[in-house]
Specification:
16 strands, 2 domains, six-stranded mixed beta sheet, alpha/beta, Alpha-Beta Plaits, Rossmann fold, disordered N terminus, single chain
């Protein structure tokens, strides 16, 4: 490889240096048999996963599945009980300060300081990272533009809408130019317009090379944003993969819905079709809805029947059940 020519003692000296580069790919997050216990209660039970640089990775699961506990261990705010957990190749037990410098966190709750304006919230937060005021000012201006809050910079927090508060918390999480952004229910309680705006901003951040880890109860959100995800329940990872691949593997591309009655179930048993009973409805999983619908109409005594595309929500409910959990 030819390195820059250099002038010395009236001569151009051309250095020819042969360099062999070795690239070691290190996952941004690597967990192996990760555990978290609170007394006798096992909140996270020997989970293993990796998150690669530049991807959006999701944690899904019912309440109490272990998602938020896992996120807190990644953030170095809750110590692990067992197993291995590294962030940027560093152990969370011994390199907490170094890891936190590279993180941006959007918590589930809106924890902005109500005594400060929009601008002041960001400026005060910048001091936690020892960012000089002269350096913080242009960063804050850029972030306010990014989340479309420039016109609200002098507004007190109580006068902001829910969507504005979430966007401000996202801006605050970016004040230290993080390489890893962690979001716990980033669009909780927002209307569709505000939710879509947050989605656009997250996609923009991903395009800049920022790695994003999120939890959400909005299955459409996970399907839209996540490159890969895991579904957790009772502290364990049930499945991992790309949203579309999980839908096709565990449900199929489509679902045919019919009324729940014994004759229809008996007919389905004969056909060896894969189905679930959901209240007064039978959901039949298929990759060929037209053929299945025709067969059911010919062979079974059906009343009302519909066909629709399968979704990530169908996978979620199939794997974790439909019982409400508090």
């Amino acid at each position: 490889m030819v390195v820059t020519s250099k002038f010395k003692a009236g001569y151009f000296i051309l250095f020819h240096i042969s360099i062999q580069w070795w690239f070691v790919i290190v996952s941004v997050i690597m967990a192996e048999d990760l555990e978290k216990q609170f007394g006798e209660f096992v909140a996270v039970d020997s989970v293993s996963f990796t998150v690669e640089e530049g991807e959006v990775f999701g944690f899904l699961g019912p309440n109490g599945a272990g998602k938020t506990t896992t996120m807190k261990m990644i953030q170095c705010v809750s110590p692990k009980t067992g197993g291995k957990l590294e962030v940027f190749g560093m152990d969370v037990s011994t390199h907490q300060r170094e890891i936190k410098k590279r993180l941006g966190v959007v918590p589930q709750e809106n924890n902005l300081d109500p005594d400060f304006t929009v601008y002041e919230n960001l400026m005060v937060y910048s001091r936690y990272f020892d960012i000089p005021r002269a350096k913080a000012e242009p960063i804050i201006d850029e972030l306010l533009n990014f989340v479309q809050l420039r016109e609200k910079k002098d507004t007190v927090i109580e006068q902001l809408s829910g969507g504005m508060k979430r966007r401000l918390i996202l801006a605050r999480a970016l004040i230290n130019t993080p390489r890893l952004l962690i979001l716990d229910e980033p669009t909780i309680g927002l209307d569709p317009q505000a939710r879509h705006l947050i989605w656009d901003k997250l996609k923009s951040l991903q395009s800049q090379g920022i790695t994003i880890v999120l939890t959400t109860h909005y299955l459409e959100e996970a399907a839209r944003l996540c490159d890969r995800l895991v579904i957790m329940d009772y502290g364990k990872i049930l499945v991992e993969g790309k949203p579309d691949a999980l839908v096709e593997e565990y449900v199929g591309t489509d679902i045919v819905e019919a009324e729940n009655n014994p004759k229809v179930i008996a007919c389905l048993e004969k056909s060896a079709a894969s189905y679930d009973v959901v209240g007064n409805t039978i959901q039949v999983y298929t990759t060929n809805p037209q053929e299945l619908t025709y067969a059911l109409l010919q062979e079974c005594e059906l009343g009302h029947i519909t066909a629709r595309s399968a979704t990530l929500e169908d996978v979620f409910l199939k794997l974790t059940g439909k019982k409400l959990r508090e």
